[in-house]
């Protein structure tokens, strides 16, 4: 397992994405899967940066584990911000046009649709959002 801890601020998104890109390069991850993971990371990290500690600031730890038996990558986002389970949110209704849809929710729907497993837990004062993407 590898991990990085950064301030939960949008200015650190590129650093977080680079951290995961390095791990994916080591295992020759297919480009399509890399792009899906990059979008999921952006969505999750930006939401933590914008909402977890608002109006204060804090940190987020990103852990990456390559599972060779599956093969898959598991990425965890840990923060000590306000408890919030994004998976409890009702999925955005993508059958409605943009004017009729409620604001928000498209990003987490994208994460749920493109990752093979997404789970949330609140443990020891931390939000822990885990995504898993199978690599084949």
TrEMBL record:
One of its GO terms (molecular function) is protein serine/threonine kinase activity. The keyword Cell membrane does not apply. Residues 7-133 form the Histidine kinase/HSP90-like ATPase domain. It comes from Flexilinea flocculi. This is Ser/Thr protein kinase. Pfam families: HATPase_c_2. InterPro entries: Anti-sigma-factor_SerPK, HATPase_C_sf, HATPase_dom. Keywords: Kinase, Serine/threonine-protein kinase, Transferase.
């Amino acid at each position: 397992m590898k991990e990085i801890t950064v301030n939960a601020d949008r200015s650190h998104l590129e650093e977080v994405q680079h951290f995961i890109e390095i791990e994916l390069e080591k295992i020759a991850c297919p480009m399509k899967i890399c792009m899906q993971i990059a979008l999921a990371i952006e969505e999750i990290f930006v939401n933590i940066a914008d909402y977890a500690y608002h109006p204060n600031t804090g940190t987020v730890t990103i852990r990456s584990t390559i599972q060779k038996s599956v093969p898959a990558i598991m990425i965890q986002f840990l923060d000590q911000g306000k408890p919030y389970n994004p998976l409890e949110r009702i999925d955005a209704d993508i059958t409605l046009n943009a004017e009729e849809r409620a604001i928000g929710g498209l990003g987490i729907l994208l994460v749920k649709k493109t990752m093979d497993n997404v789970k949330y837990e609140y443990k020891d004062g931390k939000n822990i959002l885990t995504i898993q993407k199978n690599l084949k």
